[in-house]
Amino acid sequence: MPAFKLRMRTASAVLASAAGLTALGAGLMPATASAATPSPQAIAAQIVPANQLASFSQIISHESSWNVSATNASSGAYGLGQALPASKMASAGADWKTNPKTQIKWAYNYMNTRYGSPNAAWAFWQNHHWY
């Protein structure tokens, strides 16, 4: 085989191989990125017991609409569970301002400590529209 044709086949093989790796890498990236960033609801489902999750979810939905940076303009309450003062959440982690997992851990602990459980906190919330 002439050297020119051999070089062309080798170059084609290298390009095809690189294209395959690029396509493979591109195929893996979105799945990896999605797995690295679960929704706050999915995080809560891993932390809060199943028999308490619906109540926990109701409170968080009403308080912050699952917005990690939700801020009450009049009180300054902040985050998923609307901590007041917001800095209370530092007890659950230094990343409390932006990490939904930290905020969920704090809110779950708050509900357990103050009311005994998310179910009891939700019962209180239904009567008072705050918790």
Automatic annotation (TrEMBL):
Pfam families documented for this protein: SLT (PF01464)
InterPro entries in the record: Lysozyme-like_dom_sf, Transglycosylase_SLT_dom_1
Keyword Signal: yes
This protein's UniProt keywords: Signal
SUPFAM superfamilies the UniProt entry points to: Lysozyme-like (SSF53955)
Signal peptide as annotated in the record: 1-35
Domain Transglycosylase SLT per the UniProt entry, residue ranges: 54-122
Protein's name in the database: Transglycosylase SLT domain-containing protein
Lineage per the UniProt record: Bacteria, Bacillati, Actinomycetota, Actinomycetes, Kitasatosporales
